Amino acid sequence: MATTPVEPTPQIQNAASKPVSAGTLLRFSTAGSVDDGKSTLIGRLLYDSQAVLEDQLASVKKSKINRAAGPIDFSLLTDGLRAEREQGITIDVAYRYFSTPRRKFIIADTPGHEQYTRNMATGSSTADASVVLVDATKGVLRQSRRHAYIAHLLGVQHIIAAVNKMDLVGFSQDVFERIVAEFQQFASQLGIRNVYAVPVSALEGDNVVRGSKRMPWFTGPTLLEHLENLRATGASLDAPLRFPVQYVIRPDATFRGFAGQVASGTLRAGQNVIALPSKVKTRVRSIIAFESEPLSAAPGDSVTVTLEDEIDISRGDMLVAEEQVPSAGTAFQAMLVWMHNEPLDPHKIYLLKHTARTVRARIHQIRYRVDVNTLDQLPAKKLDMNDIAAVDVKTTLPLFFDPYRLNRTTGSFIVIDPLTNVTVGAGIIERAIEEQPHTSQRRNSTKEERILRFGHPSGAVWLKGRPHVAELLERRLFDEGWHAQLAGPNDFLAHELVTVAKAYQLSGHITIFSPLDDGTDQKRVVRAIYGPDAFFAVKIDDDTDEEATERIMKVLRKWRDKQSDSQKGSS
Amino acid sequence: MSTVEIQPAPLLEASRLEHLKMLEAESIFILREAAAEFAHPVMLYSIGKDSSVMLRLAQKAFYPGKIPFPLLHIDTSYKFPEMIEFRDWYARHVGAELIVHKNQKALDEGANPYDLGTQKCCGLLKTRSLLDGLAEGGFDAAFGGARRDEEKSRSKERVYSFRDSLGQWDPKNQRPELWNLYNGRHHKGESIRIFPLSNWTEFDVWLYIHAENIPIVPLYFSKEREAVVRGNSILLLQTGVHLLPGEKPQMIKCRMRSLGCVPCTGAIRSDADTVPKIIEEMISFRRSERENRVIDHDEEGSMELKKREGYF
User: Fold this and answer.
1) Longest alpha-carbon distance in chain B
2) Are residues B226 and B202 both part of a single domain?
3) CA distance A39 to B296
4) A371 and which of A204, A376, A561, B95 could share a cystine (Cβ 3.0–4.6 Å)?
5) B75-95 residue pLDDT tens
6) Residue B181 sits in which domain range?
7) For residue A162, which of A220, A217, A104, A90 has the smallest C-alpha distance?
8) Do domains A242-321 and A453-570 have the same CATH topology?
9) Predicted TM-score (pTM) of this structure
């Protein structure tokens, strides 16, 4: 390897040369495992920048556990929870704060273990910069690649490679250069342009806050100096206006203000805007802050807007620039990080929260799963916890969105399980999927379209003598997002049943027939309407209502999955 | 040091306050989001400096409308009289509805910090009382002024912190929180604690109080007060504090760094009698603000234990 001095990529020099005004806020995430010395690095940043308070230090010194060789175990400053202290691992995202005379910093400290991809994504979602740790004794491991990939995917603008444990490789320039070359190569594969590499020893403090006398060959800024000079991402002032309405303020009949945070662009008094979804054009009358009326509001400002015209706007609507409106639609492609033990179910109806709008949605197709270690795109039928995939999403109501790379606010969403209320996934929107133009080809919806929307073909469950099970089953199906209908004995006259069955069969519902009397003929006729593959006659058993319901649900889910697999195979 | 020369603080220059605007906008976003998504939110009002800031942010979030939720104060009945006076004045001043809740049953049965010890007393008069107060009001969301920089276990707290039907926090099973997309969905009986000041530090809070001229309880400002030195703490001699054998009351120039109950919150020696002086003092000061609370130091990780049980 040549002995030329290391040139940290030229982009960095540019970033560092731009002055950053004092007092701004920079959010950065750190990623890495305990072995990389990530907690030690953060502890060192906090300690050397004198943010560690004396009494906190005293309690660390007192503590029985000390995993580090040095006099103070810096990682104990950052690992908050009991379980972590006992197991010696960081299991969740922790936020840390410190200030220098230049600016305030928020660190999202995220764990590096494989099963915690979701936490890394969480930490990256709000970060302007990401510090990826590389162990100088080990080189660029899968983990470093994974961190860089996730940070880049989530739109982190500045990636910093902190090559740590330089003390263990004799502060060798060769080792550093070799690692940087490897990292740069991987980064450029990903399309990451802003990489700054800095050789550090977190344990001994070299190049973290202060420069290193032991690495005179390195002349770039220290880690902290670099962070102090980075530009916070912030949405561009030139981007088109996006103002999602969060809350309507109506103190009396004369005032109607729309409160929200400017997602991008500049909001100006007197400016023409379009309200979505109504597409009504109007003009901003005034911008209201607390006891003042500024003439404009910049991205990130939380303000209240009054409009010239009385138009109907509520939470979840959006005010946008008239010259550049966002996509408005119900179908888009996205990259999804799955965050829950229970795998993604492409048939299930989830809730999707996007800006101030929550809608029902299906993630009905997985285009491919990304192997975050190799970046290979692999076929996938389901997504497990920590999987990242390209998916197609279909929502029930339209969203107003931009691609994530253009707008972090209008391009991001979370996925919520409607039954447990837990956040199960997070996604970034890549592009709208053109919907079938309805006007050019006027024809009614087909059976296939209905299957795509409902997630299942039509079917019948024949359930005689268990009216409670019929009710329970309908509820369960409905709650899980099926299109289910109960046809109870009081709903129709006996002779109407055949007509009703035919209608439901066409409409694509799962219909639960709960007849009173024997009606053997009726059963035969209904079976004929649905066909043997979609007709389920439930044998009366002595199991409880709940057990019976669960038994039927299992059969139906299996049937549905089989149907949709064969559907995909044929298409 | 008795005389501190106060510079016309360069710290308080406008350019240094830029990050406060970002913090303020984020907090207002959180307050509005919760007010829109919850049926019965309430703001936990503890009378301290953080509560004062949170209340100002709520005024701003809904201006020119009124704050669309009530304030709830959990009164242990061991608070400083100056706090109660300030509370009633400030709530009226802001025009907010104030609910005061006490665990009257425990008080009637004689609960007090002297006989029970701080852990048990807090459990009954704060944690239990808070859970009861929330349940009685049927509140499904409660804003709290906690900040992540206060204590280690708080650094992992979400902005929206889910609590089960018993009000408990499960640190290992928190909902992921990305961007500013907060998930407030919950079943009946469950609730969410919401922390709009999550990303503020103690320093930010003081800078903001200064920049916005926000009223705070006079106990934060230094003056000569009758007190007793007990161990490492300076306790103000007020209702309920009894002298131990051998202790003598003395006049000490001191102030409170955080506000709690009379017997369990110590004062610090200080000359800072204005907000800028407090800010100057903080810089030379290297003690975390909770150090004067007896309760957090009973055992390592005691804050985490209390939080799991439902404490703020």
Assistant:
1) 58
2) no
3) 24
4) A376
5) 988 888 999 999 999 999 999
6) 16-206
7) A220
8) no
9) 0.79
* Residue A60 scores a pLDDT above 70: no
Q: Which of B138, B181, B140, B187 is nearest to A479 (CA)?
A: B187
d(CA A115, CA A178): 29
Same domain, B282 and B180: no
In sequence order, what DSSP letters do the residues of A242-258 get, joined into one string?
A: EEE--EEE-SSTT--EE
Q: Contact A54/B286, CB-based, under 8 Å?
A: yes
Q: Which residue in chain A has the smallest CA separation from B33? A: A246
Per-residue pLDDT at A126 exceeds 50: yes
Nearest-Cα distance to chain A for B294, in Å, is: 14
Cβ contact, residue pair A80, B291, below 8 Å: no
- Taking the CA of residue B104 and the nearest CA in chain A, the distance in Å comes to 34
Which of A24, A257, A351 has its CB closest to that of B19?
A24
Whether residues A122 and B66 touch (CB distance < 8 A) is answered with no
- Nearest CA-CA partner of A316 in A353, A286, A350, A288: A353
* pLDDT value at residue B121: 85
Tell me the shortest Cα–Cα distance from A300 to chain B, in angstroms: 7
Confirm whether B4 is domain-assigned. no
Question: Which of B23, B181, B304 is the best mutation test for A, with the most CBs of A within 10 A?
Answer: B181
**CATH architecture label of A453-570:** 3-Layer(aba) Sandwich (3.40)
Torsion of CA A443, A448, A451, A457, to 10 degrees: 120
Look at B201 and A85 and tell me if their CB atoms are within 8 Å.
no
- DSSP-assigned letters across all residues of B43-81: EE--SSHHHHHHHHHHHHHHTTSPPSS-EEEE--S-B-H
Between A81-90, B122-131, B227-236, the lowest mean confidence (pLDDT) is in A81-90
CB contacts of B206 in chain A (<8 Å) are none
Tracing tokens 């103000």 back to the chain, one arrives at: B236
Residue B44 near residue B130, CB atoms below 8 Å = yes
In this structure, are residues A129 and A49 in contact, taking their beta carbons and an 8 Å threshold? no
Q: Contacts of residue B187 in chain A, CB cutoff 8 Å?
A: 421
Which residues of chain B are within 8 Å of residue A350 when distances are taken between CB atoms?
none
In a domain? residue B239: yes
Report the CATH number that the domain containing residue B142 is assigned in CATH.
3.40.50.620
Which pLDDT tens digit goes with each residue over B49-84? 999 999 999 999 999 999 999 999 999 888 889 999
* Inter-chain touch A55–B288, beta carbons under 8 Å: yes
CATH topology of domain A327-432: Elongation Factor Tu (Ef-tu); domain 3 (2.40.30)
Within-domain flag for B308: no
**CA-based torsion, A539, A541, A547, A551: positive or negative:** negative
- For residue A566, what pLDDT is reported? 58
Q: What class does CATH assign to A242-321?
A: mainly beta
Q: What is the ipTM of this complex?
A: 0.87
* Same-domain status, B167 and B270: no
**Å from A499 to nearest chain B CA?**
40
Q: Which of B156, B203, B304 sits opposite A93 (nearest CB)?
A: B156
User: pLDDT by residue (tens digit) across A463-496?
Assistant: 888 888 898 899 989 888 889 999 887 777 777 8
Q: Is position B309 within any domain?
A: no
Distance from CA of A412 to the nearest CA of B (A): 8
Domain shared by B127 and B226, yes or no: no
Cβ B183–A421 below 8 Å, yes or no?
Answer: yes
Within 10 Å of residue A200's Cβ, how many Cβ atoms? 28
Reference A75, options A104, A36, A102, A101; nearest CA is A36
- The yes-or-no verdict on residue B47 having pLDDT over 70 is yes
Level-2 CATH architecture, domain A10-229: 3-Layer(aba) Sandwich (3.40)
- Distance from the Cα of A94 to chain B's closest Cα (Å) equals 4
Same domain, residue pair B183 and B253 = no
Q: Is the pLDDT of residue A88 over 50?
A: no
